[in-house]
């Protein structure tokens, strides 16, 4: 079912590849799936409680991605390291690729890294993950497929003390061909608020995965944020994966 990269000595890989032979017309990415910090980084100087917070990972996102992989018969590439170790949705030269502070929380283990330390994290975690995505998309192309790339994220319920009312949100750039019908499908039941570039848009100058893997290949794509309190447990992950898959079937033309 899944394939892993070489592990870090503690059984944790840079990525897990799920359902590589999936034929459903989608490829799923989950950049912030894990809160794993390798032992040699000594929790980056943080208490365990901080590694359970949203600053370390997109809580619930991996569960939704893995369930969607099954529902959609789609390959899924799931990142294996905490976003505090390295943020796989940032450009390799970005200042916050390895954040020294996250949501006002200092990250001691990321301060004053040498170029060699930075390069080692890129080589160990960032590069294998994105090479795996490249390989999956190349395999799809070799079969004559143009899959939709789905980037799965989750957002904290509150930021700076303000409640985020959107239970699910889509982030987009200029291409709105798939966002508009998907928003309509998600909103049609009338029971929830759905964010449209709220709280985050998709900025190619900031975001890496969708611009690099989908935009440059002219592949269709969607980037979604599930609110973390909605997907914190398996029941919520199941509910929202099914709702998202149903909306996809409604919104997108049959090919």
Brief rundown of the structure:
With 255 residues, this protein is an alpha/beta fold.
Helix proportion of residues, in percent? 25-40%
Q: What fraction strand?
A: 15-25%
Distance between the termini: 26 Å
Number of helices: 6
What composes the largest sheet? 8 strands, mixed
- Helix-and-strand structural type: alpha/beta
Low-confidence stretches: none
User: Mean pLDDT, as a whole number?
Assistant: 94
Q: Which H/E pattern describes the elements? A: EEEHHEEEHEEEEHEHEH
Spatially, the strands of the biggest sheet line up as 1-2-4-3-7-12-10-11
Radius of gyration: 17 Å
Overall form:
globular
E-strand count: 12
Question: Could you list some keywords that capture this structure?
Answer:
255 residues, alpha/beta, eight-stranded mixed beta sheet, 30% helix
